[in-house]
Automatic annotation (TrEMBL), chains A, B:
GO terms for molecular function: DNA-binding transcription factor activity; transcription cis-regulatory region binding. This is LacI family transcriptional regulator. It holds the Pfam family Peripla_BP_3. Coiled coil: none annotated. It comes from Nocardioides iriomotensis. SMART domains: HTH_LACI (SM00354). Residues 17-71 form the HTH lacI-type domain.
DNA sequence: TTGTAGGCGTTATCAG
DNA sequence: CTGATAACGCCTACAA
């Protein structure tokens, strides 16, 4: 079968030129081309130029598959995100990207969009592509495929979740402490009846943040029923709105004077619907969110929130991943960052 | 050199088993394993099970590089995003993802983060990986590498930008019309002095949206200086805040009564700082954004915005890409969607 | 169904 | 620097 490399300089839509086409065109040996590509120093400047010119003329594009087939492992990382439309995760992704770039690795983002099935598909593909490593915020940290993947030799770091077992590195934030901070802040402001807005129960964060909230209430000497449960089906803006309607609908005598939301999306939805229904924030209802996404600060009533070091999370996770990928006596590590309360107008004392 | 496949069922951390290991373990021929993988119907149910079990036991993971080396083209798409932290683009990405999934293709997201350099790196890598095709919202639609990539045989569709030349398919929204809609709405409400908030100039959208705004003003019989330029350095929330401070600082006699922002991020920042500085929205300043991201509707003063069909953009772009990748007599197409004004409280007549 | 052979494009090695 | 050659792991085809 005919190959490429004929038709003069008038760059025809050639069907992919290979190293040997380049060699032929430059009038050098195949090995030399390879050297230009991989050890440019071993080749005289003049021949190198000739080769490079030939590459340009032919529109040579390295075939990564072939390269990889020999090399064994690619130089890309992947982050399998739980929800690409949640700014929290895109900020984490940005932290990862920066760290990856420094290590001269490319990052591919994959969006599982909360689907365990899609998550599995991505994990499998990434494995098949022999990526250097995978960062993931899993739908379920106990997903067995995660262990499978490491067993087959692809490092995996879990981001923003923790696992009891230490088969992976993980990087997360102390959610229990975060819950504490939120409630302590509200109690300091004099609130004695506080809604906890979040769900579903299966999300570990929701449980932990509530746990911290309960502990803080107890420490403050308030009864357990000072925390009013307002359940959501998901941690989304629209569920937040929904919860807001329920809260606004309560008789003002029993209505909580403050709400602690399991994340900022919920808090923003809540804020919107409460304001829309005539509640004043923070006077009638103080609101605390969680994550401190950029839109929390940018709300028309800027939102008090528990800040997670989003970029840091990504950066540290990447460091752990790279260590696992390159350091033969790597030890798994569970990093826990400390959250921080950022007070804004949504809880301002009036 | 010794290979794998010994040590009993107790899944040791084997160093990657290949098809022939599987064949040996299952006691079948290599060809049969390959058939199980690629044409399961050609193999009896019983042998197939045996093979599948062997795969499971050995933790066999297909080597995509080898597969690809033969196949020529992978079954993944990539979307090179301009800014992964802008919800507009993540919504577009979601549309792409859905369409890709239907076609049984995986999608990798790459974030150029407005850097032409990073964009180039990604494009090159994707080409090297022989992806089926690339969707991209480019930093600069005239980037020559884009043409290079198509010439080498990788289909490219441009998303949310247009190019004069028709060397690619593209999908975008009529920004000039969008600008018109925004201004017509404000003029209908009686505004006669309107700020246009956006920049930098090099962004095509900014120019087009302003152009539409100017045209609408002219049609309404208002003088050109009814549109007050408020420049930003970027289309971000913080630049929006900045612009807000400048507007709020104007003497109320000459201050515009309304602002049309080049996107929602700017609008949200503007909204926040104006409210913070004591301006009432919409009474003292009406605000219109562009994109209609979810957070626009969720603002405490819900934002009027020019909606782009974000998911549709992604979906249509993917369809074009697939056509280009598979249909031999594909014709490039420039799709232009029609935007739509969504009126909310930030322009409500008081 | 079985074996086996050849090739995908790149890299590495080794003697000249 | 050349030229030749052997991997890398998988897929297809072909003859049994």
């Amino acid at each position: 079968m005919a190959r490429v490399g004929d038709e003069g300089g008038t760059a025809g839509p050639a069907r992919s030129a290979g190293v040997k086409d380049v060699a032929a065109r430059a009038g050098v040996s195949l090995g030399t081309v390879s050297n230009v590509l991989n050890r440019p120093d071993r080749v005289s400047a003049r021949t190198r130029e000739r080769v490079e010119q030939a590459m340009a003329e032919l529109g040579f594009v390295r075939n990564e598959s072939a390269r990889l087939l020999r090399a064994g492992r690619s130089s890309t990382l992947a982050y399998v995100m739980l929800d690409a439309t949640n700014p929290f995760f895109t900020d984490v992704a940005q932290g990862i990207e920066r760290a990856a770039e420094q290590a001269d690795l490319s990052l591919f983002l994959c969006n599982s969009d909360q689907s365990a099935e899609r998550e599995r598909v991505y994990l499998t593909r990434l494995q098949e592509q022999r990526v250097q490593g995978v960062l993931i915020t899993p739908v379920d940290p106990d997903e067995p495929l995660l262990d499978e993947v490491v067993r087959q030799g692809t490092p995996v770091v879990i981001v923003d979740r923790v696992r009891d077992v230490d088969s992976h590195c993980s990087v997360a934030v102390d959610d229990v402490l975060g819950g504490r901070l939120a409630i302590e802040h509200l109690v300091d402001l004099g609130h004695q009846r506080i809604a906890f807005v979040g769900g579903p129960e299966r999300i570990g964060q929701v449980r932990d943040r509530r746990r911290g909230a309960q502990a803080a209430l107890a420490d403050a000497g308030l009864p357990a029923d000072a925390l009013v449960e307002v359940r959501t089906e998901a941690l989304t803006v629209s569920e937040g709105r929904n919860a807001g309607e329920r809260i606004a609908g309560m008789p003002s005598a029993t209505r909580p004077t403050a709400a602690f939301c399991a994340n900022d999306l919920v808090a923003l939805g809540l804020l919107q619907s409460c304001v829309g229904l005539g509640l004043r924030v923070p006077d009638d209802l103080a609101i605390v969110g969680f994550d401190d996404i950029e839109f929390a600060a940018a709300a028309a009533v800027p939102l008090t929130s528990v800040r997670q070091p989003r970029g840091q999370l990504g950066r540290r996770a990447t460091e752990l991943l790279l260590d696992e990928a390159t350091n033969p006596d790597h030890r798994h590590e569970q990093v826990l960052f400390t959250p921080e309360l950022v007070a804004r107008a949504s809880t301002r004392r009036s």
